[in-house]
Amino acid sequence: DPAKNQYGYELFASEAAYYWYPWLYQAGGDLLSEDGEILFTSDEAKEAAEFYVDLVDYSPKDYLNSNSYDGRVAFAQGQVGMYMAGAWFAGVLEDEFPQINGKWASAPLPEGPAGCKTTIAGDALIMLNQTESSDAAWLWMEYLSRPEQLARMTYLTTGTLLPPLTSLLESDEIVKEKPVLEGFIDLMKCGVASTVSNPKFPRIETILNEELGKAMYGEQTASEALDNAAQQGEAILSRG
């Protein structure tokens, strides 16, 4: 109801590509093949993009040029009824908007033709190949990767991050400590890592994001957005 400044969903043109990926995977589509062929112009991808972009009709225009972090305000203030976010968002809501604790819950996205899919993103420990203290660095990484340390860095501390070990996700302790994580844990079995192993893909993703954003603003159709992104992406991939 625009007159009351109340909407059903929230979209962000600045992050258009990333939040499209779950719909893409659920439709049975993908981004790139293992040999670097662009796949996001398939019928499945276009169907997912059209559905996704059409959600702009149910989204507040004031937040379209914002981002998912700023968009938490619209959700907390009751301007939007649904908001796509990861487990981290639960902790942000609890800390910043305690007045709505107990008044919201998580739910999975509706399953598509390819079933339940959601994106997985995370941080990683790395060791530089020219480090002068590789043994010490390895021991430190090994220590931080132990189950008890991962628990301490995620659900046993402030915030609502998920640990990257199945044994911890399936333990009784995590839901006991952070009940709000239960819905997010259930979705981990549907997780798809959206990182494409191609050094040129970040440039393509930037273009894909821009083109889908244009579609959200009504400058082109969702299908045209994917075709335009693919044309530019193929030019990038063809360069040596």
UniProtKB/TrEMBL annotation:
InterPro entries: Bact_solute-bd_prot1, SBP. SUPFAM superfamilies: Periplasmic binding protein-like II. Coiled coil: none annotated. Gene3D superfamilies: Periplasmic binding protein-like II. This is ABC transporter, substrate-binding protein (Cluster 1, maltose/g3p/polyamine/iron). It comes from uncultured Nocardioidaceae bacterium. The lineage of its organism: Bacteria, Bacillati, Actinomycetota, Actinomycetes, Propionibacteriales.
